[in-house]
Amino acid sequence: MTISLKGGPELLRLLDELPKNLERNVIRGGLRAGAKVIQQQAKANVPVRTGKLKKAIGIGTRTDGSKLSSYVKLRGSGSYLGLFVEYGVAPHLISVSDVDKPVRQTRHGPRAVSIGTMNKMLKRGSLKIGENFVGPVVMHPGHAARPFLRPALDQKAEEAVNAMGAYIAHRVQIGDLRAPTLEVDDE
Questions:
Q1: For residues 44-63, b (16+ Cβ closer than 10 Å) or e, as one string?
Q2: Which range has the worst mean pLDDT, 32-36, 97-101, 119-123?
Q3: Is the pTM of this model over 0.85?
């Protein structure tokens, strides 16, 4: 997807007239406003089972030299689920390992045992799902992808750019200086 902006050169000329820290803060706030639109759409798109994945959708900004960028990212306790939901899971085998993994002492105390090791402790050579022993190998059927992040960007790119432009236009009003309105040029 290519997004070109109308009003960009005028915005750059206006920002050249402002102090650098004000410019950085205004641009950062505009980027966050645009990312917020994408974040809200991703939260609306995500399949909700426990709500952990929905809560894990966050936004942020980063600086790389003079380049500022914003992002929508999964973080926190439910974030690991996002990859599986977004891209799906292929059918695969889950098996008991032949080698027992020892419980190790770490500087933070004893290391938690893996599910496989726990299963071996409960009944040698068998996996346990819930309260049932199911044998040494289980075929996981996988599941189809249910993308929510990529479609959020596709659905709300124009609105995100407009939110960024509106934020900047609202924040930059000094005397007769006004920020130009940004528009998406769909070519």
A1: ebbeeeeeebbbbbebeeee
A2: 97-101
A3: no
